Amino acid sequence: MQYAQYGKNGPMVSRLGFGVMRLIPRKKGEWGSVNFSKSVPIIRAALDRGVNFLDTHFNYHHGLSEVAIGKALKGWKGHRVYIQTKAPMYQGKSLAHYKRCLQESLEKCGVDTIDYLFSHAMAMDAHKKHNAKFLKLTDWALGKGYIRHRGFSSHDTASHIQKYIKTGYYDAMLVSLNWRTRDMADTIALAADKGMGVAVMNPVGGGMLSETTPMITRLLPGAKTSAEVGLRYVLSTPGVTLALSGMNTVEQVAENTATAGRKSWMTPKQRTRFLGKLAKLEKKAAARCTACGYCMPCPSGVAIPAIFLLMNQAKFFGQEETARNRYMSYKSQKADISAAACVRCGKCLPKCPNGVPIIECLAEAEAHFTS
Ligand code: SF4
Ligand code: SF4
């Protein structure tokens, strides 16, 4: 395992962190439950392989993620393990409520101190309304020794996240980055430059990029799986301290820890070649639809750009199964948002700056994914 300092005042953490939010449920699809007898050994397997960083949230698995951490750490005699949890400040509850939440987190995890307390899913509105409360909460918790550092996680725009970074309040942040969505790279570099630790979520796009195909492994000669490509891209991105992975099999733990333990993830030359090949594929993919969204909203609710992105994912990255599953999920929503819902009204056509023959392309997508 490789280690790096999590911000200028932070500890040395493993370059792979365990995202404790995709644990094995008691029943398939029952996110709120956790099968502890299956899940805890997977967390332990990661600790055994050198992972020393666990990321959670007060509410993951309806609060049972922190319980799983407590169980995994009970009796653990190995290296120091760092815990990062999050408070849902955007819910706008009282300071007293969040203090109670933190005390519950400490009890569930079975520790005296949480290493990092984050304001979860920070967005500009919530930041304006609730950040003063988060600072009060964390000042209190720091004073009591209940936490060591504060930070934020966010899915906000790069420009908003840069504003949060520049406040200077935070020791670390958690943002999304993967080889398909690279627009956070400059923001990550800025945070690192300001001395913050940077954790990255979704290195395989929350599972959307995990299907291994030759088109993806060819981007990085020698890589065996898409998960490896995803982690190597993130870990070679300047400013990234660690990548989080929500592992739920021991095999995933073995593969990801082996990847995080490499001496090098991508040399600068490999990275340039990787990005060059990727740009060529993306150019082909964007030749028709650039996902600008100008054609939306469709009066019939068709998710036009999302459907074309899935077609690109299938055609240019070979991820047929992942794209088909996602497409079929569009049909099983309350209102069908797949291409089948298109009534051929033509309202979207003049709005497309790229002249995409939307109606024909939607018909092509429906035939492709349902045949
Ligand atoms: S042609 Fe189809 S996709 Fe376009 S606006 Fe009409 S219903 Fe929506
Ligand atoms: S307007 Fe055209 S290019 Fe933009 S998302 Fe719609 S189909 Fe794609």
Summarize the structure.
The chain is of the alpha/beta class.
Report on this structure.
This protein has 371 residues and is α/β, with parallel strands linked by helices. It is built from 13 helices and ten strands. The chain has helices at residues 36-48, 64-73, 95-109, 124-144, 158-166, 185-193, 214-217, 226-235, 250-260, 268-286, 304-317, 320-331, 358-370; strands at residues 3-5, 12-14, 16-19, 53-55, 82-87, 114-119, 147-153, 172-176, 197-201, 242-245. An eight-stranded parallel barrel has the order 3-4-5-6-7-8-9-10, surrounded by five helices. Helix 4 (124-144) links the parallel strand 6 and strand 7. Helix 2 (64-73) packs parallel to helix 3 (95-109), helix 3 (95-109) packs across helix 4 and helix 10 packs across helix 11 (304-317). The longest helix is centred in the middle third of the chain and has 21 residues, at 124-144. The protein is globular and about 60 Å long. The N and C termini lie far apart (45 Å). Bound molecules: iron/sulfur cluster (SF4) (2 copies). The site of one iron/sulfur cluster has 15 residues, from helix 13. Residues 298-300, 302, 304, 342-348, 358-359, 362 line the site of one iron/sulfur cluster.
